[in-house]
Amino acid sequence: MVTRYKNMVLIGTSHIAAHSIKEITSTIEEKKPHIVAVELDQRRLHALLTHEKPKITFALLKKVGVKGFAFAVIGSWVQRKLGKLVGVEPGADMLAAVKLAQQHKIPLALIDQDIELTLQRFSKALSWRERFRFFGDLLRALFFQKHELRRLGLEHLDLTRVPSKDVIKRLTKELHDRYPNIYRVLITERNQVMAKRLYAIMVRYPNVPIVAVVGAGHEDDIVTYLHALERQHESSSKLAKV
Hints:
- By secondary structure, the chain is an alpha/beta fold.
- The protein has helices at residues 18-31, 42-50, 58-64, 66-86, 92-103, 115-125, 128-143, 145-151, 165-178, 180-204, 216-241, and strands at residues 2-5, 8-13, 35-38, 108-110, 210-215.
- A five-stranded mixed β-sheet has the order 1-2-5-3-4, with helices on both faces.
- Strand 1 (2-5) and strand 2 form a beta hairpin.
- It is globular and about 60 Å long.
- The protein starts with a strand and ends with a helix.
């Protein structure tokens, strides 16, 4: 899924889809960007490159919170299970972009918020209502899998490809409606961070091609925030001239 915004090509990916890897490869090879930006922070980049798993320590649990750490463990487990179904390691899309940037000696920009800060914010934001809903949804997913897939319109979902925009909108709306605090921390806040970092890159390098790789669920909001940042910048420039 590719969106063009000025001198940037934004690729919305699925972290376990082989099609995403092909799309990233063809786009970078074709566009020959001067900068490749990825939805990673320094810690996640290191984990992808070294295959190291974070060590469970009291200091880590204290820093990110038990709820944030539990979410990271569960999320990682789910992605690994889904990845095994299609034969793709979770994060292979980001890793492909990183390795292509290294291969072609293209500067790499890490635009995501630090994962420890995100998990820390998650631990503080998660409400009791959302915790109860999560366990209920987890039980339904385990024991009524087909029914839940039909309810979400995912019974024919092809994991090897990026879901359609309609499916992504349906799933993000489900997350927003049932887990507003989780949505704010995992989607809204991170999209704002990534948009600000991308905008800063575009302002600094206005005349060079840029390729940015993010999860497909972030793509549309990031473009919306980029438009807002541009309007804000234009308004500030006009006021400065008065």
